[in-house]
């Protein structure tokens, strides 16, 4: 019939805005997906800051896009696993205020912050304090293969080199014990 008996067409009103919203959503999801792909490629090429920017664009374009979080998690975890905790921090620092990223990545952010603090103590030549922090870190993260992986080993190496350079053999010996 020319006019349906239920008058459903009149009840839903003008569907043009709904269709335009669907088109816009599809377009923003496409932009977000392209930025995710670009971010992963940049990460693979070692362009960490640019990768972080791409992930940020992907999140701001379509915060609900699950690909963003999934691919960002893969890149962050890979950085941590390969001992590049500072790269993981760079990837997350730009995006931390968006789309619940801080909550989603709270465990990784905690590891990154702890490792950064220990590295700072080591660079400042505070061998004993850094050793105490390393012991706390290893105790707290006992059994966590990511936390005690290559990033942890790099921290131990930094601490060992620093303590040997400052002739703090007692701290160096304790670090070697932690490493074995």
Question: What portion of residues belong to β-strands?
Answer: under 5%
Number of helices: 10
The parts where pLDDT drops under 50 for at least 5 residues are none
Main sheet characteristics: none
Rounded mean pLDDT score? 87
- For the secondary structure, the number of strands is 0
Helix content: over 70%
Amino- and carboxy-terminal Cα gap: 82 Å
How many whole angstroms does the radius of gyration measure?
Answer: 24 Å
Description:
With 180 residues, the protein is mostly helical. The relative contact order is 0.08. The chain has 10 helices and no strands. The longest helix is centred in the N-terminal third of the chain and has 29 residues.
Describe the structure concisely for a colleague.
The chain is mainly alpha-helical.
Main features:
180 residues; elongated; single chain; mainly alpha
Topology:
Blueprint: H1 8-12, H2 16-44, H3 48-61, H4 66-81, H5 85-93, H6 101-104, H7 106-123, H8 127-140, H9 150-165, H10 169-179
Helix pairs in contact: 2-3, 2-4, 3-5, 4-5, 5-7, 7-8, 7-9, 8-9, 8-10, 9-10
